[in-house]
Design a protein that fits this description.
The protein is of the alpha+beta class and 93 residues long. The chain has one helix and five strands, in the order βββαββ. It has one domain. The chain has a five-stranded mixed beta sheet, covered by helices on one side.
Length: 93
């Protein structure tokens, strides 16, 4: 199943500073990375409970492999469109 989820992305600036940020990542049916949001995402929700659930999902991604933002490899297919009600821009190769 194609899906979006949270992923930690490590990037290095031109001065050598390393940053870890949470992005949403799109994976194809084979589980291969197809796209990530261009910018890191912020936690949000329509209630405190929804915000708490979003933060818990974000924390869980810290236990998964980190994506190397400086050397990302994308598979296909590209997503046709983001899920409804999301204002996402994403990058692919």
């Amino acid at each position: 199943m194609d899906h979006w989820n949270h992923s930690v992305v490590k990037t290095t600036t031109s001065t050598g500073e390393v940053f870890y940020q949470i992005h949403e990542a799109y994976y194809n049916k084979a589980g291969n990375l197809c796209a990530i949001t261009e910018n890191p995402i912020a936690a949000c929700g329509e209630s405190v409970e929804e915000l708490r659930e979003e933060l818990q999902r974000m924390l869980k991604c810290c236990d998964k492999p980190t994506l190397d933002g400086d050397n990302l490899e994308f598979d296909s297919p590209k997503p046709d469109k983001p899920e409804p009600n999301r204002n996402l821009s994403f990058r692919t190769q």
